[in-house]
Amino acid sequence: MLKKFAISILIILLIVGCSKQQTNEEMTAKSLYDKLCANINFDGTELTYEQAASILFLDDKATEAYVYIANDNTSNIIATIKTTSTISTIDDLNQYIASINQSAMNYSPQELNKIKNAYLKALNSELIVFVICDDITQVEKLIK
Description:
By secondary structure, this protein is an alpha+beta fold. Helices cover about 55% and strands about 20% of the residues. α2 (about 30-40) crosses α6 (about 135-144).
């Protein structure tokens, strides 16, 4: 009886340990980026870190950036960023949002509502998700 109980506890601990490890693996900037790109479709280009840092006004606090940006005149973008300062990086991304908002006012006002509803959120102390697309509810479902 005690032996079965001990084995049951061991199995439960292994299952819990494996599920926690899998959750941590899923929360990398790259894996989250891949998941978002697989489920949000628009014609775009994947940027290098240097291109992303330049376009998104990222400072040196951003250590990784995975970015897919629309090829057309839409504001669509998928970005996951690993950073040492979520506050600083969110400020950088808000600067980018202000910039594209200003451009949209002049050249593509149909994009203004989409930009206004951008998904910008720190998921933990080092991972930020930034998405502008037609269906933000889909993004919210994917990240939960």
